[in-house]
Design goal:
A 5-stranded antiparallel β-sheet has the order 1-2-3-4-5. A hairpin with a 3-residue loop joins β2 and β3. The longest helix has 17 residues. The relative contact order is 0.18. The protein starts with 5 loop residues before the first helix and ends with a strand. It has about 140 residues and is α+β, with helices and mostly antiparallel strands. It has one domain: Roll (Nuclear Transport Factor 2, Chain: A), CATH 3.10.450.10. The protein contains 2 helices and 5 strands.
């Protein structure tokens, strides 16, 4: 018997460019709101990671901007939108905060004494239909 939520879930996932590939058959009984693994190269995951980085940069006292260097693990949960749970490594760039640079054009520090890498956990909640992003958790060390 098919679960009444599944068609909605599949639609929600497709509309937001979130593809969960190679889901084992046991996952087909998944309850609404259960987190599922999602590919780290997924566009939604990458956008969510960048939102987490923006939030980190806004709250840090560093002179330089940080940028995501590697997404280690990503989960997504469907709960009134998409809630991403991400483990991300971020590194200090050569761009100074005061310059308001676009992170895409910022390169990672090459100077040994200025290099820094942090391991972060971000929770990024995106509701596509309202274009709202809420970032309740940013934990970097």
């Amino acid at each position: 018997s098919s679960h009444p939520f599944m068609p909605l879930m599949c639609f929600t996932l497709m509309c937001c460019v979130v593809s969960v590939t190679n889901v084992p058959p046991s996952q087909s009984t998944i309850r609404p709101g259960s987190p599922v693994p999602v590919n780290i190269n997924n566009l939604g995951v990458r956008k969510a990671a960048r939102f987490g980085v923006y939030r980190y940069n806004n709250s840090s006292n560093d002179l330089f901007l940080f940028k995501e260097s590697q997404i280690k693990k990503a989960m997504v949960q469907i709960v009134r939108g998409l809630k991403y749970m991400l483990h991300v490594e971020i590194k200090r760039t050569t761009c100074k905060k005061r310059d308001h640079s676009s992170l895409d054009s910022c390169h990672f520090q090459r100077e040994k004494n200025l290099q820094q890498m942090l391991k972060c956990y971000f929770e990024v909640w995106i509701t596509p239909w309202t274009h709202k992003v809420h970032i309740p958790v940013v934990h970097c060390q």
